[in-house]
Amino acid sequence: MNTTDKSTKILAIVAGILILGGFLFAGAAFGKTAKEIDASADAAMARFYKLVKDGKEVVAKSKGMLILPNVAKGAFIVGAEYGQGAMRIGGKTVEYYSMGSGSVGFQFGGQSKDIIIAFMSSEALKEFRNSKGWEAGVDGGITLISHGESGGAITAMANNPIVAFVLDVKGLMVDVSMKGAKFNKLDMSK
After folding, report:
1. How far apart are CA 113 and CA 100, in angstroms?
2. Longest alpha-carbon distance in the chain
3. What is the mean pLDDT of residues 8-33?
4. What DSSP assignment string belongs to 27-39?
5. pTM for this prediction
């Protein structure tokens, strides 16, 4: 490999790291208010009910729902994803969370999507809420459900304690993986 190729790769990696850092810090620094998160969560749930045939039944059977509207992802070799949302139990917001993840690899583009996570067991919900920095794939698994599944979401959910629906994807990337996504409780008292 010649010096020009090495320099180009190093420059691309540095640019990716800067994009990733700026993306994550901007998300944290310019966080939404509780009122803004709740309004966005209401809109995401309206889309959920419209797109998921048995969405109302999913909500009724769940012990809690984490609604992350308009989760943004951007990538140029290094990717970053960030969103803020509301944890609802019995239809009422009880806490607010952020979700962030990073990745490295051949990737370029940006997208926005709604992520609705249904906790189907009290134990899974309790573990999530009591953790400090819960990570998908490490602290617990999340089963992704396609809203187009024949037989409906309830059938597809089977005996999974945590299921997620990724909806309303907009942008140039198509990525629905949640492995490595880290969830942190937000302090909205500030």
Report:
1. 13
2. 61
3. 52
4. HHHTPPPHHHHHH
5. 0.75
